[in-house]
Each structure stands twice: as structure tokens, then as C-alpha cells.
Amino acid sequence: MDVRVLGAAAPDPFLSAADLFETEYDLEWPVRVRVRDDPDERTWAGHYEDYHVLNISRQAATSVMARELALHEFAHMARYEESHPSHTQSTEEVLFLALAGRSVERHKLIHCYQIANHMKDIYADDITLSLTSATKLLTFLESQLAAAVADRPTTDGRPESTRLTAAADPDITAVNAAFALALVERHDLVGSDHPLYDFARVAGDDAPDVDLHAFKRRFKSLVADPTESDYRKTLVDVTRAYAVHSGSWPAAD
Fold first, then answer.
1. Which is nearest to 60 in space by CA: 47, 69, 51?
2. What is the SS3 assignment for 203?
């Protein structure tokens, strides 16, 4: 693998991730690592005519998760190079097929993109988790979900709202919880007494219109090598399952 780090960050985590990745996989195209100043965009992979770009925030590049994040993005690049349907299917096409003729709020559309990314992540992490320990991933998933369900609103000393997830949208928080559980169950990472299940239960209670267990089953049961047609249908079905429950499903004018 040809990995070049561009920007003010130590190359060690990225080169270490590349060495580990090469024990089982390889990338045909070179990788350029670009360190960004925006801390909100943690990592994402870009694919161009003959190279990949691993975009990573400076904060993430200097964190204890840097190697694991790089390994995860290398896995996305591998899926792209092998033309896996999860990484070649246009999300815009799926949204058109799933929601044509319907009115859906903008934030729900954004959530649909996030759901599509969860499905990509499932397939990327099938590679990642075959190469490295899940310890840091579990800590990350737990902390993210804990933060979402712990942010309870208060209003000038009045009783707390019945909503348990205030800052994050409760519906997508429940889907995020379903993704976390699906990932750990798909790879038999934890037992049912892990704190993730407690946090997921709270997230599910806060979003009664979202069937958390159904979304978990959808994510967990993704087949390893779907055809393009089968994957497109699965993503259309998941998109509709999320968009329909919200009530934003009237016929277009």
C-alpha cells in the first residue's frame, strides 16, 4: 500500500494501520491522508480516478482512535475497489425510488443518508473487525450512545421533559442504537448485559415510532455478498421503513 500523509500530523497511526491492513487485504490505488481543521468531520473516504483520499480531522488524527479510524477507512476503500454494491449504489437513486411522489422533511432525508452510511459501515467493519480488537470501537459506540441518551432537557427548574434524548433527534438516535447493537451482535462482541443494551433501551423508549429491534435485525442480517439489485431493494426498504413511520408520508401535490 502506498500511503502518504499530507498535513501536520504524525504518520505513525496511518502507516501502522496500513501494515495491519496488508496482513489480509490490499489496495490497488494509493492513499492520500489529508488532515482537516474541522473537528466535526471526523473521518471520511473520497475516491477519485486513480487514488483514494482519507480525510481526517486534526482532532481525530491525534486521538487514541487514529489507527482504528484509518483502518476503518481503508476498509471502505477496499469495498469500493471490489465494487461492493454497498459502496457503489447511489443513495440519491435509492431516495428517488423509495420516496418518489412523497413529501419528506429535510431532516428526515438527512437521516436517510445516515442510514445508508450505517449499511456501508456494516460492510466496512466486517473487514475492520477481522483485523483488530473491538475494544476501542466498543468504547466509542458506548460513549456516543451514552451522550445522546443522557442529554435531558430542563426548563427553568420545571420538571424534566419525558423525552430522554434532547439534543439529538430521538428517532435517528434509536436507529443509531440499532446499528450499534447489530454490529456487536453480528460479530459476537459482547453479552446481553453490556451497557450498550441499557442505552439502546432508553433510546428506543424515547422514539416509540421507531422499531429499534426491526432496524437491528435489518442491519445485522445484511448478507455478505448481495447482488446490486438485492442491495438496492434492501436499502429502499430500510429507507421507507424510516420515512413512513414519521408521519411525513402524504401524497405529493
1. 69
2. helix
